[in-house]
Design brief:
mainly alpha; two-stranded antiparallel sheet
Length: 145
């Protein structure tokens, strides 16, 4: 059972890495104003997020079954706590995945924060451009708009 849990954690880690790549591609698309690419990346990001959530639920069910506890109790079990219930090698592997996933989460958070900042700046810039163009008193290239 613990091997299945470790495999699911490994898959979660791989999907988190994929999610990080998507966030980095979104950042490039935001900087280069590739709107169509942003839509595709957002859809793909949603798919990956659903898969991660599904794996997380499967892992929680397996942990609950492995430890003989409810799923709500299993959701509060950390990887560190779970590593105490398994043999040394499996525990070390779980702790390694925990550390790697923590690093990915940090990078993912920073990437999402940067993307939000870039999107807000683009929104403000676009609003400023629209207000400049639609203001009846401004002249652009000697033509009154």
């Amino acid at each position: 059972m613990i091997n299945k849990i470790i495999k699911i954690v490994e898959l979660e880690k791989a999907l988190l890495e994929e999610l990080l790549k998507i966030v980095q591609k979104q950042q490039v698309a935001l900087v280069k104003l590739k709107i169509s690419e942003l839509a595709e990346l957002s859809n793909y990001q949603e798919e990956i997020s659903k898969k991660i959530r599904s794996l997380e639920l499967s892992r929680l069910n397996m942990v609950a079954s492995f430890l003989g506890i409810t799923r709500s109790e299993a959701s509060s079990i950390t990887m560190s706590e779970l590593s105490r219930y398994v043999n040394h090698n499996e525990g070390v592997q779980l702790l390694k995945y925990r550390d790697e996933m923590k690093e990915i989460h940090t990078r993912l958070y920073n990437g999402l924060l940067t993307n939000r900042l870039l999107a807000n700046r683009a929104k403000v810039s676009f609003s400023n451009i629209l207000s400049l163009v639609t203001n009846g008193t401004n002249q652009i290239y000697n033509v009154k708009v």
